[in-house]
Amino acid sequence: MLGTIFFKMRKKESTDYANEQSLFQLCERNSAISMISGRWKGQIVYYIFQGNDRFHLLQQKLPNISETVLARQLKELEGHAILVKKEIPNTVPTGIKYILTNKGIDLVPILDSLCKWGKLYADGKKILIP
Fold this sequence. Notes:
Residues 27-126 form the HTH hxlR-type domain. Keywords: DNA-binding, Transcription, Transcription regulation. The protein is mainly α. It has two domains: 1-37, no CATH class; 40-122, Winged helix-like DNA-binding domain superfamily/Winged helix DNA-binding domain (Arc Repressor Mutant, subunit A, Orthogonal Bundle). It is built from seven helices and two strands. Strand 1 and strand 2 (95-100) form a beta hairpin. Helix 2 (15-26) packs across helix 3.
C-alpha cells in the first residue's frame, strides 16, 4: 500500500523508480526488504509485539528516536499494512494504540532470525571463507 503511495509520489520517469520497479519484479525479497528498511522499523515492530502499543511507550523504549521519525516510521509501517492504528475508546484526548496485523505478526520471527544472523556476523566478527 505505502509502496504504491511512494511510487506515485516519485516521478515515474525517474531512474530510481525504474530501478525499484525492476528489482521488485525480479524478486519479492526486494519488496519485502523495502517494506522493513529503516533504522527503527524492526525495533518498532518488536516493541509493539511485546505490548508497547502507544506512541509514548515506543518513545520510552527508543529514547534516541525523534518524534518526527517515530511518527514517519509508524506511518510507513501502517501504509505497508504491518500495523494498524486504533482509537482507544473513552479517552480524552482520543488515545491511539498500534496493533500488528497478521502480516506484522508473521514478520516477528523473521526479525528474530535477522537478529541472530546479525549477532553472528556483525561488523568485526570473523568470517570464514570456504
